[in-house]
Specification:
single chain, Nuclear Transport Factor 2, Chain: A, 5-stranded antiparallel β-sheet
Length: 151
């Protein structure tokens, strides 16, 4: 079960100040078919995080299970997302060409996350297919660099 700390880590890992498609790094161009759809969701999160658009993240990008967990803690989704976006120091995210694994309605996306200090961590986003869209369901791996303890 996903808890609030992993949600905040997930969002902090994806909050990319000024990087991604706006900076000319469109990872989805390196993929085709379903893997491209998965990476497009990561990019959409990146764009929403860069714009500090917490409502878009909640409405369009988080899996129902994540939203259910937030409701169980009585934490408004937009508030939790905004807190995570404000707390991050991450400035770069990249999905390597071999970074997407899909099994049915579930996917794992390996993401290289960099911080202003130059450190790079690798995390894995867990994603689920809900209807025709891929949604973020959790994170596995290290906390993002520069983000400190989460919780």
């Amino acid at each position: 079960m996903l808890r609030r700390a992993p949600l905040i880590t997930l969002l902090a890992a994806a909050a990319l100040a000024g990087c991604g498609p706006a900076a000319g790094q469109d990872s989805a161009e390196d993929f085709t078919g379903p893997p491209r759809e998965v990476v497009a969701t990561v990019e959409a999160l990146q764009e929403a995080a860069s714009a500090r658009d917490a409502q878009s993240v909640c409405s369009n990008l988080l899996a129902a299970s994540v939203q259910d967990d937030l409701r169980a803690t009585r934490t408004p989704c937009a508030e939790a997302v905004e807190d995570a976006l404000t707390a991050t120091d991450v400035v770069e995210l990249e999905v390597p060409r071999d970074g997407v694994r899909i099994q049915g309605a579930q996917a794992r996306v390996r993401v290289e996350v960099g911080a202003r200090e130059g450190a790079i961590d690798t995390v894995t986003f867990a994603m689920v297919r809900e209807g025709s869209n891929w949604k973020l369901a959790g994170i596995e791996g290290a906390a993002p660099p520069g983000g400190g303890p989460q919780g």
